[in-house]
Amino acid sequence: MDFVTLPEAGRFRLKNLRTPACYLGQPGTGFAPLSLTVADGRLADGPADATLDMKGAIVLPCGVDMHTHLDKGHIWPRAANPDGSFMGALTTVAGDRAANWSADDVRRRMEFSLKCAFAHGTRAVRTHLDSIAPQDDISWPLFDEVRADWRGRIELQAAALVAADNVTEDGAYAHTADLVKRFDGVLGAVTYPIPDIARRVETVLKLASARGLPVDFHVDETLDPTSATLRVIAETVLKTGFDAPVVVGHCCSLSTQDPAEADHTLDLVAEAGIAVVSLPMCNLYLQDRQPGRTPRYRGITLVHEMAARGIPVSFASDNTRDPFYAYGDMDLVEVLREATRIGHLDHSRGDWAFSVNRTPADVCGFAPCGKLGEPADFILFNARSWTEFFARPQSDRVVVRGGRAIDRTLPAHAELDDLMEGK
């Protein structure tokens, strides 16, 4: 049950709110007092017809989830990871994709995830789409339809996901790049150590540049310290002068590399203007998993060192109930809570709250949120401090879209049972 009831219409004012000081341009790790006025579904100033005393409740902007896999989501009941390993995830997803990923199957699972994200307070999502042929010709037109259906509720972007071995200047990858351009997407690839990785990265940038596309890479999703393709990406961006936005995700191997090598790579990333998205829950699930052995490493990348260099750092959901991550619900409050615990974001800088809303919105180019005249999209929490905020799931949060509290009822997992039958 919601902890507060908002007026259905008219101009109303919420007083005695508090928000992280960073949102008001103030220093420190604490909160600052705030009042909000809503009129005609937008943030406003001036008098109000009604005023509610929020008694110190926290308010945050609606979330932006910039690294997800809506096309993989919720296949776990029919395609469970056999051993929790990265290779187990790869092979299981490949088999399920070939057998089951029709347009109807992908659409229904995408819609389910988006219902969850919307109910939790997310206003924008970037999803990666497996784009190995023939799946690209199925998923990209379908994504365009889903994006149109969700316009006004969740703003959507898509990024192509193709293994670096399949990146070529012509043939199937060039066809995928044309689809990405046609559907206003983001070009991408998964990078890992192969002999000609620098050439493959340069090919991605070349095809993206020719089509005016931004780029989003999966990078070094391993704890092997010899996997250093992040440095290759940064060097190639600098060498080519590629000037469209570049995002890299995961970058797990930085956490096991020699500190001097990692520092050098991060200096290059900062110089190249590359943004990073960390996926702490999925990486914690997959990395350093060995039978009968307690994991030693967390898998999270060097987010503190990145932030200290001015590199934009975001956190995101990544996979949801699929072989890469058996859990999750597209809830960015959970993502921020777990990132704080896994990455020790507490006792640190005061602007980590940006990492699940303002920073990813800026990086991806989603519409801004939170200024006067913009839609009144925000989340109210029955918590007055970070320790209260992170102590509970905040299941009684109030999600406000266009000035009105939405119905936060989550879809039942049973809605997808027929897709899993006989699998």
Key features?
13 helices, alpha/beta, five-stranded parallel β-sheet, 2 domains, single chain, TIM Barrel, Urease, subunit C, domain 1, 423 residues, 16 strands, four-stranded mixed β-sheet
Overview of the structural elements:
It is a single chain. With 423 residues, the chain is an alpha/beta fold. The protein folds into 2 domains: 12-62 and 371-405, Urease, subunit C, domain 1 (Roll); 63-364, Metal-dependent hydrolases (TIM Barrel, Alpha-Beta Barrel), CATH 3.20.20.140. 34% of the residues lie in helices and 20% in strands. Strands 9-10-11-12-13 form a 5-stranded parallel sheet, sandwiched between helices. The chain has a 4-stranded mixed sheet with strand order 3-2-1-4, with no helix packed on it. Strands 5-14-15-16 form a 4-stranded antiparallel sheet, with no helix packed on it. Helix 2 packs parallel to helix 3 and helix 6 (229-240) runs parallel beside helix 7 (259-272). The longest helix has 18 residues, at 103-120. The radius of gyration is 21 Å and the shape is globular. The protein starts with 11 loop residues before the first strand and ends with a helix.
